[in-house]
Design brief:
With 254 residues, the chain is mostly helical. Helix content is 77%, strand content 0%. Helix 3 runs antiparallel to helix 9 and helix 10 crosses helix 11. Its main location: membrane. InterPro entries: ABC_BtuC-like, ABC_transptr_permease_BtuC.
Length: 254
């Protein structure tokens, strides 16, 4: 996502993709009632796709077309919109809050292995697309003009990469809730270790992302035993300082 948007701060949580997925799940629960986690898969995928398309549409308005700055503004707008609507539904009907509260905070607890089997095809397709297009993403990271000069179909690469983002983000949100900052922090850590070759960056992101999430989940389970802190709170504590550091670094370069 950071390659496609040309923005080091881009991630599904900050660009509104996770918020769109959460909004669809909460909206369905609000109007229809309690739903199993298995039904969250389609809802999250539709919400992630819709919010991603809306961000792309808003970021492409104007004479200059899509720019990193406009995408950030569009992502922040969509994030604020869907987050506000989600909170509105939760305030209006407390029963909805009770049904999705722990899921919204992000958690790996109590997940049925059958749910993983249900989302596995989407995860495998998303990962497969990302790995197959890893070489094109490496070239795209050099800039759109350079990529076109090297014979890359920039629009196609961005569209396919965006599809992978929607599949991975939607499936992940469906099974674990909108856990933030993992998609922001891990790519920067991996690039610091292996460079900008995405044939290495993407596989390492899978490994390091799993390590960060599982480590955060372990901390969440033991920090206030016998209770449990939502894992999303732990990843936020880890990711927020890194986000601040990235913003300061970007401002200094500007």
């Amino acid at each position: 996502m950071q390659v496609v948007t040309k923005n080091p701060l881009a991630s599904p949580s900050l660009m509104g993709v996770n918020a769109g997925a959460s909004f669809m799940v909460v909206t369905y629960t609000f109007f229809v009632g309690t739903s199993s986690l298995g039904n969250y898969v389609w809802l999250a995928l539709v919400g992630a796709a819709g919010s991603g398309a809306l961000v792309y549409l808003l970021g492409s308005l104007g004479r200059q077309g899509m720019t990193p700055l406009k995408l950030v503004v569009a992502g922040s707008t969509v994030l604020a919109l869907f987050s506000s609507l989600t909170q509105g539904f939760l305030v209006i009907r407390e029963s909805t809050l009770d049904e999705v509260r722990f899921w919204l905070a992000g958690s790996l607890a109590g997940r049925n292995p059958a749910l993983l089997v249900q989302v596995l095809p989407y995860l495998l397709v998303g990962i497969g697309i990302a790995l197959v297009f890893s070489r094109q993403l490496t070239i795209l990271n050099l800039g759109d003009d350079v990529a076109r000069g090297l014979g890359q179909r920039v629009g196609l690469v961005k569209a396919v990469a965006s599809l992978a983002v929607v599949l991975l983000a939607g499936a992940s949100v469906a099974i674990a809730g909108p856990i933030g900052f993992v998609g922001l922090v891990v790519p920067h850590l991996v690039r610091a270790l292996v460079g900008n070759n995405y044939r290495w960056v993407l596989p390492y992101c899978i490994v390091f992302g799993a390590i960060l999430l599982l480590g955060s989940d372990i901390i969440a389970r033991v920090v206030i035993r016998p209770g449990e802190v939502p894992v999303g709170a732990i990843t936020a504590l880890v990711g927020a300082p890194i986000l601040i550091w990235l913003v300061r670094k970007k401002v200094r370069r500007a």
